[in-house]
Amino acid sequence: MITVTINGQEITLDREMSVLDAARQARIKIPTLCNHELLKPYGGCRLCVVEVERMPKLQNSCALLASDGMVVRTESEEIANVRRGILEFLLINHPLDCPYCDKAGECDLQDLTNKYGATAGRFTEEKRKVPESHKDQILTRHMGRCVVCTRCVRMCRDVQGASAITMVGRGGRTKMEPFSSESFNCEYCGNCLTVCPVGAILSRTSLHSLRPWQVDKEVATICPFCGVGCSLNVQVRDNSIQRVMPKLGVGVNEGLLCSMGRFGYDFAGSPDRLDTPMVRKNGTLQKTTWSEAIGLVAEKLAEIKKAQGGNAIAGIASARCTNEDNYVFQKFIRASCGSNNIDSISRTGYAAAQKYFEDILGQGVSANMIQGLKNSETILVLGGDPTAVNPVLGLAIREAAQRGAQVIVLGNAAGLKRFATLRIEPPLFREADMLTALLKEVYGYKGDRGEREALDRTIKEVISDVSYSGSLETVKGILVESESISVVLGMDLVQRSDGHRALFALAGLIYLLEARLYLLSERPNEQGLRDVGCVPALLPGERPVTISDFRRSFETVWGCTLPEEDGLTLMEILKGAQDGVVRALYVMGENPVFNLPNQKLIRESLGSLDFLVVQDIFLTETAELADVVLPASGWSDKRGTFTNLERRIQYLNRTVDSSHGLDDWKIIAGGSCKMGYEIDYSSEDDIMREIADVSPLYRDLSYSEIRKGKCLWPYNGRPLRGEAREFVTADVEKRDFTGGLFIAVDRPLFHSGTITRKSDALNRVCPEPLLRINPELAGQIGCDNGDDVTVSTSTGSVNAKIYFDSSIKNDKVLLNNHFEGNGVLSILEYTIDPVTKAPGIEGIRAEIKKVGQRNR
Asked: pTM above 0.90?
């Protein structure tokens, strides 16, 4: 233990730290401009000088380690004179435009000058003039205000790992510039905004919109985009979100944000939000009252249930809705409609992968903290780019690499290009073969682990029949010699017709190497969906619906009789609609027409239904087909909980009051009551109390405990333990992936599903679909960077703009699925993996034609 005395206050430290950090721990403020909690000590501004007994000169507290018995003073006349002199130098060229500057009221330089002076400048020379730059889509630069603290550059280089900006010039002409000069052309995380102490870098999204003292309230909540679940502070004025800020040291992000989390919030206030129910009359959707709309839903569902049974009804839940919404939704489908046909779009990736891994390795296998990545010795990344899908998780991988971890990338992860120790490109769509061969190599070195006989036996059977010509000796060597391994899996690998083969090989590697597993999650509550029972085979708390004891406990609380058989998965529901088995579908907060492959086929399936209900915040492609459209509350105007990919339950706060729609759970409860099954809650608190009562996983959880941010799996509950099952092989037809050009899904950094279409800020950065293509291949087909092209498959065609990406192989192009009318999934066909039930969308050949030209 180290004991220091600062300003007469004795402070005990449990680890080595600087005097500045010791003072912060004791809430003693020492002024600084160049130091920041998120950055390493720099010692540039000298404002943090302190007096130390038995040291003849003032010391920089940021660079001085606290030692036992040290006595420090942070304020004295000598210290104040030094700080005043430093500030006077900084103000030589700094413009005195505080009344105009957006940073006024939260500017460190302004605050320090107010405290220490100088009250007047003694320099008569003309101030340096640096033109403002407003040429970037999101960020504006005022380099005349820059104090050359280099916080922004160090944040971008050392923490974000993007290295998109640098300091240029010398002496008094030093300033920050992006490498692309006019535009930042970066990851647009905005973390430079967090650390800038003055108004040198500002956000155009909130420029001249408010002053800090004009903020009506600041609400702590959770980001609505990906599965990391970053903590946010939302600043509200006049019942409108003005800014989103991180809170240092809080949440899984600890003060860092990505582009969507910082700038994408404006979708919540879009004028396109639905605010009135609609019903289809004479072939068109017409506005109506809540009473008529909900009454029609109840009447039609009751008719179908009576005539054809509960199994003729199905529901699609949403990973953008809260645990409370989804719990009530699955309760409605099961108890009121009498059906276990409930699933979500997460079946296409996250839900399918997690079920498969838990069947083999046990519950909780993916419940690992993101912080653990930073301490890993080796990180294996495959199936997607974590820096794009889950950016803050991607930053943890970059930090691990900077600490010396070996990062192995199988496939393409452009955001880790400078951080990967080794990158291996598998044969096109043959990841399963490569992983099985790697499993064989590792098994040859490790042998049976001996803990699970069935799994050891199945591994031997699987690796006995594998052929792979590539060399994996280097990868094997790194893995078997590492003591701490993390595996980061994206959903590209799941979306294969033989995806289960890759997942089993990966499960075998995790088992043999005792590795941690992280599943990338594109939406904020994919884990919560499964936990609260929005899957066809599980009740809340991950209890199998086919086991009578579990089913009986829920029947007692819910006062109903539940169906005994597993329900249909997502793609089975849609196939059932096409075949006439499923007659009614209730879609909550989801857009399957756009977010599933082969849009024409999905439209045909939904068109075969007798009744379609869509409950959403926008009139989506799916809502346009509905018989009833119900406007719901969105992220900003609801409260409840999300469960992130770590399986951490987090509290979502209501930030604004909205008249756009009703809470999802209230709409569902209203419909259920009209059907004759009473669902009665007065608030989200009642729902959570019931979840904590009936779900063995959520046992005794409360909002007060969840708000502390430490509710990690298995919470207070009892996970269901089980032995590893034997691997069920499935015959999947081998397909030829040679010759021609193939198209696959791109998952970009700046968009999430279809809701970011409504974000003006994000559309400034990425306003149109981009076809990522190798420059050499583009040249072969007569296209240049930025050209408009039409991409065609056997299913249809979409338009996009060429974007050069040298990391992509010549036999494949990538296109995103976010922009209306031009989503890549609409032109992809699919086959169902017989084991995971996820759609395989690999192996789709495409043709590219430059607009105005013939095919080349």
From this structure: yes
